[in-house]
Amino acid sequence: MSYDALFSPIKLRGLELKNRVVLPGMNTKMAKNKHDVAEDLTGYHGAIAAGGCGLNIVEIATICPECHAYLYLGLYNEHHRDELKKIVDAIHENGGKAAVQIWHGGFVPQEFFDKTNKLETPDNLTIERIHEIIRQYGQAAKFAVEAGFDALEFHGAHTYLPHEFMNPSLNQRTDEYGNQSLENRCRFSLEVIREMRANMPDDMPLIMRIDAIDEMLPKVTTVEETIQFINWAEEAGVDAMDLSRGNARSLATVYEVPPYNLEPGFNMDNIAAIKKGIHIPVIGVGRVNMPGLADELIREGKIDMIAVGRGQLADPQWCNKAKEGREEDIRRCIGCTEGCYDKVIDPNAKHITCTRNPMLCLEYKGLPKAETPKNVMVIGGGIGGLVTAEFLKARGHNPTIYEAAENPGGRFVLAGKAPKKQEFAAAVEWEIEQCRKKGIEIKTGTKVTPELIEEVKPDHVIIATGSEYVKPDIPGIDGADVVSAEDILTDKAEAKGEVLILGGGLIGCETAQYLINKGVKDVRIMDKKRVGNKMGMLRTMFLDIEYPGKTIQKSNRSNITSISDHEITYKFTDKFKKTSEKTRHFDTLVISVGTTSRKTEDLKAKCEELGIAYDVIGDAKKVGMGIDATADAYAVGMNV
Questions:
Q1: CA within 20 to 30 Å of 547's CA: 77, 128, 135, 426, which one?
Q2: What is the C-alpha separation between 507 and 513, in angstroms, rounded?
């Protein structure tokens, strides 16, 4: 299929872009020691530029030491300039154009990431410091120009400092930068724009990122006020608007890195409403991960360009595949947010990653061909086994997948049963099809035994047998109307009446959503810790957004000790750590306390007996998330 609108050129001031696809600035955590750029970050941008992207926007670069947290790039001295030039060169060498987000984070760096920062918000800045910050934006623009960037982006969204000045509830000043009028609230941003423009060549475009809709705060900037600000910004020197959504002061955080709960294109009506009142091009943002929708939005005039962020994290060749008519070969982002968001807020994570693309941030390593091709037995056709086989095949090995069930797919198929998670099932079906396209044999209905390993005599074995349902050791667990979450999601069992779900992890919460969507009225999740404790922050927040109040009832710190005839006994620990024993009636009790690794000792023992090298990956090694299985798949696929 042809996507003529998406792949038509566009000119911003003196810069012509070959297509309308933009890689938005996204935190990668690949800044080294706050001040250096290594081959992983240049490799990441080089790969996406080589994949055909029209404009790479390099992630936020801080304008001063005060807001420079450990995970951000800097742009306030000559060393930063020279380091960022490495990224510019990598993008240019691969046929792309480069921009950089110039940024002051307000309260965000200190509150979320690095307590050593100096907190700077509209309420604690002196006039002198405001003027200094404006000059620092100009100095950062100058360094960016010297680094060779083709365009600059002024980041004013997501409750960073410019947004804090703009929002009437975050700005409590009473002077010329205060919230008495829209002009005052816009003054800081407009002065920054003029200062940046004064430090840029006349033909270099300046982009600004703001929120298309201000929301979930005590007071908000209206759409009409946003339109007025954009028109003022155009007069001050802005050439295009990058219209995002979300803030870090409310549940609207979910819109910054939207999970699968939000439909592709969820932000486009907000953007289209603004576009009607302004005169400069807009970049649309809102979980658009496939070219057909992107092309349609541009053809309809709702947007002029499209930010494809996590779509290009999942598949750096997104643009090339779309342009070549190979849309079916695009590896789609599934909106799990496990690698692109959860890893950002995890202090132990070195960089972001991706469930679908475990090579993300590791592109510089390439896929070297194996010195000695091997016949590899991959035991298990779930997401981990499938992806392992693909990496092995790419490196020249000969993998064969053995799957005990009649159909491959594993637990990703079950995940696809949950509301709004159909993309998970589609993802594993895509992997199955890719394996077949690449000539990888998948033997279904074939349970691997030690005897089969001895018969096949592979050179290497990958054990990816996954996990299985856990029946907890609770008295009465085999009583009437006690069923598993897996049986509910596969419609092998029915829940009726007052439903209690034991276990508030990912599967328990999704089972509750599944039941509510089927019309069950009374659903309560009980967990000995906290309901939603293993879902990731954004998806947990969506429980409150999509199922507010008592739609799904929650009992935290509730440990079930016994089950009798349609009644449970449990120990409840209050916030003062006082424990009491309680009982509760149920009509259906759904057990969702997790899964355990399948037993593989006999397979490992046979490999050791025969001297066959083996690896255990994914849930078979340790029960985790899909991102853990594909990370193992990449590591093993590279090492065999």
A1: 426
A2: 10
Tally the residues of the chain.
Answer: 640
Rounded CA gap, 118 and 109, in Å? 9
Which long-range contacts (C-beta less than 8 Å, at least 24 apart) are formed by 167-176?
167/214, 167/217, 167/219, 167/220, 167/221, 167/247, 168/219, 168/220, 168/221, 169/217, 169/218, 169/219, 169/220, 170/121, 170/122, 170/217, 170/249, 171/122, 171/123, 172/122, 172/123, 173/122, 173/123, 175/127
**3-state helix, strand and coil shares in percent for the chain, rounded to the nearest 5:** 35, 20, 45
What is the per-residue pLDDT for 2?
83
Dist. CA 178–CA 458, nearest whole Å:
72
pTM of the complete model beyond 0.85: yes
Closest to 337 in 3D by CA, of 366, 307, 298, 309: 309
CA-CA distance, 638 to 640, in Å (whole number)?
6
Q: Which residues are catalytic?
A: 160
Q: 316-328: string of b/e by CB count within 10 Å (b at 16+)? A: bbbbbbbbeeebe
- Reading the block at residue 306, the tokens are 């499209």
User: Are residues 290 and 332 in contact, defined by beta-carbon separation less than 8 angstroms?
Assistant: yes
Distance set, CA 307 to CA 10, 22, 228 (Å):
14, 5, 23
SS3 call for 480: coil
d(CA 108, CA 213): 19
Q: Report the interhelical angle of 626-639 vs 383-394 (nearest 10°).
A: 30
Q: What is the pLDDT of residues 223-271, one digit of tens each?
A: 999 999 999 999 999 999 999 999 999 999 999 999 999 999 999 999 9
Q: Per residue in 1-46, pLDDT tens? A: 789 999 999 999 999 999 999 999 999 999 999 999 999 999 999 9
Task: State CA 68 to chain mean position distance.
Answer: 23
Residue that has been written with the tokens 């576009």 in this structure: 275
Q: Look at residue 13 in the predicted model and tell me its pLDDT.
A: 97
**Residue 376 region, left (φ>0) first, then alpha (ψ -120 to 50), else beta?**
beta
The reported pLDDT for the residue numbered 304 is 98
Residue 313's pLDDT is 98
Per DSSP, the three-state class of 250 is coil
Largest CA distance in the chain: 82
588: how many CB neighbours lie within 10 A of its CB?
A: 23
CB contact set of 73 (below 8 Å; sequence gap of 6+): 31, 34, 37, 58, 59, 60, 61, 62, 80, 83, 84
Residue 170 neighbours by CB distance under 10 Å: 24
Mapped onto helix, strand or coil, the DSSP state of residue 283 is: strand
DSSP state of 545: H
Of 609, 23, 639, 180, which is closest to residue 376 (Cα–Cα)?
639
**pLDDT number for residue 594:** 80
Distance CA 507, CA 419 (A): 11
Cα–Cα distance, 302 to 318 (Å, whole number): 22
Provide the pLDDT for residue 549.
65
Surface-to-core class of residue 169, CB atoms within 10 Å of its CB (0-12 exposed, 13-18 middle, 19+ buried): middle
CB distance 117 to 68 below 8 Å: yes
